[in-house]
Amino acid sequence: MTDLKIRIKNAQEKNKKKPLKKPYFKNTPFRVSIELVAGIMVGTGMGYWLDQSFNSSPWCLVVGFFLGCGAGFYNVYRYSQKLKDEL
Amino acid sequence: MHSPLEQFEIKELIPLSISEVPISFTNSALYMFLSVVAISLLFLMGARKASFIPGKFQSLAEILFGFINSLVEENVGEKGLPFLPLVFSLFTFILFGNLFGMLPYAYTFTSQIILTFGLAMVVFLTITLLGFIKHGLHFFSYFLPQGTPIFMAPLLFVIEMISFLSRPVSLSIRLFANMMAGHTMLKVFSMFTISLGIFGFSTIIASIVLIGFEFMVAFLQAYVFSVLTCLYIRDAIELH
Question: What is the pLDDT at residue A82?
Fold first, then answer.
């Protein structure tokens, strides 16, 4: 019985040694561009929506656009940090 | 000649409506239904007579389940196992949708942004609710990285908030754009084959390569969607 346990453990360790390929980081240029665009889209959309509801055109849109750019770049930054950890 | 975007057209198969709200059974709904039936059949067949030496269906079901199980354990940890059913259903649904779309004349329902956005919203609402249930109002500290100078705090809070809200958008656009671009490209290349006449064999070779590539994308996008779901769930559980 203990023999079997040791064998199971050995087999598990063998399996673990094989580093899993991370397809999460494939197609990186496309992924990064989408992260950036999504931030800008959400920021601008929120600004547009605020303008519609408060009748303050175009100020919220402009502010939202810049905040969205910030969020987009922040997304890209976080993604690149993750990429660096992984490599 | 047909437009390469014609394949994404929604056709009503059985027109239905409830007080002028259209809920027709479309070709998109048909393929969603088919993929759900296929998934259910696969797992019913796999679990019907569980034997020690697995048969065809059982080993396929076991491989799929083991794959997602290890994915969740690896990316979220033990605490994430309650979310295994969610990740598993998302993965199989998207995978079967992508693969059904590779059949000739079939409709790829994952190339519709409303569907992928719906799936992404499910994930988004899950992680938001999970964060609030686990941490209460403390969840808001997620939007303020530690060590932020106080005069930067409002700006960073808004930026983090927008970044958090952009998650379902990027999740849905990624899946939809990959599927739509791939299928459009296939169609364009096959149109070249006809118009090039005798030289069409070169584009036939390119199409064969692209079809293989599309199969890879079908798996990869389902995988990426579920990996990102896992990462978001871990964020909500651990708050950084």
Answer: 78
